[in-house]
Design goal:
Oligomer: heterodimer
Radius of gyration of chain B: 13 Å
Helix content of chain A: 25-40%
Shape of chain A: globular
Largest sheet of chain B: 6 strands, mixed
Strand order of the largest sheet of chain A: 1-2-3-4-6-5
Shape of chain B: globular
Largest interface: A-B, 23 and 25 residues
Number of strands of chain A: 6
Bound molecules: adenosine-5'-triphosphate, magnesium ion
Number of strands of chain B: 6
Number of helices of chain A: 3
Distance between the termini of chain B: 31 Å
CATH topology of chain B: Transcription Regulator spoIIAA
């Protein structure tokens, strides 16, 4: 099912519903393909972006469809930067528990940020203008 | 993504195809696994040979399936994991939690021999 993403400068915006995840994934893959990235790098970035977009929808905007998620994508030769911003209340990323420890290992949730960080070169969290979460991820092509 | 499911030798075999990534389709698979356990399935093989990509939600569903089956004395095993999924299991330390097999047949056989 095709879901409409609205164009914004350098990216797209969409309401906070998981039904947009597939369209966001297609958008990111298309842009990275156009930029000449290989299949494996595209897969890693796509998973990482999907983790942050899903968190923005579920935890940031709490699936309130009147709140938007914004995704911006910037690429230069051999590298890409993607920002995902929500309209939530923000959180403290340093306080997120390790998914590897104790009973967390067998929990159904809690691995998203951990996995996303492993797949790209850097992840930075900050606050958007209205206090929501802004995540900036950076990936360079392997040499 | 979509999936197929069948039964062989008293074992449910589920074959997801495409991207096991968060979204409504993946939740359908989660519902299916929960329903199978509810109606009495105890032995399950998830055949991952046709899964292109997996994210934390995909992993979460596998872990949820595993724990819900073990809670009722059952077991969930993985077959045909690709290199990408293997490394995902390794970094999340789930490789020591799941039993994995090179083929669906080997996974089925392990249920008979208890290995
Ligand atoms: N954009 C966000 N706004 C507010 N809280 C967030 C945001 N992103 C993450 N969090 C918090 O950080 C926690 C960890 O996120 P993470 O993605 O690692 O795991 P999860 O989303 O709970 O489970 P999953 O393994 O399915 O991703 C979340 O449970 C949530 O409390
Ligand atoms: Mg998450």
């Amino acid at each position: 099912m095709a879901r409409r993403l609205s164009k914004i400068p350098h990216g797209v915006a969409f309401p906070s519903d998981q039904k947009f995840l597939a369209a966001v994934d297609r958008y990111v893959e298309q842009e990275l393909k156009k930029a000449g990235f290989g299949k494996d790098v595209i897969a890693d970035v796509a998973i990482s972006v999907s983790e942050f977009v899903n968190n923005a929808i579920l935890h940031g905007n709490r699936q309130d469809e009147s709140k938007l998620v914004r995704l911006e994508l910037y690429h230069a030769p051999g590298q890409v930067t993607i920002c995902v911003e929500d309209e939530g209340e923000g959180f403290e990323p340093d306080k997120v528990a390790s998914p590897l420890e104790g009973e967390n290992l067998l929990k159904e949730v809690g691995r998203g940020i951990f996995i996303a960080k492993m797949l790209v070169d850097s992840v930075e969290f900050s606050r958007g203008e209205k206090g929501g979460t802004r995540v900036k991820l950076f990936k360079k092509l392997p040499v | 993504m979509n999936y197929e499911s069948k039964e062989k030798e008293g074992v449910v075999i589920i074959t997801p195809k495409g991207k096991m990534m968060a979204g409504p389709d993946l939740e359908k698979l989660h519902d299916k696994i929960k329903e199978l356990v509810r109606i009495g399935a105890r032995r399950m093989v998830i055949d991952l040979g046709e899964v292109e990509l997996m994210d934390s939600r995909g992993l979460g569903i596998l872990v949820a399936g595993l724990t819900s089956l073990r809670n009722v004395g059952g077991e969930l095993k993985l077959a045909r994991i690709t290199n990408k999924i293997e490394s995902l299991l390794v970094i999340t330390h789930l490789s020591k939690v799941f039993k994995t097999y090179g083929s669906v047949d080997e996974a089925l056989k392990s249920f008979q021999t208890g290995s």
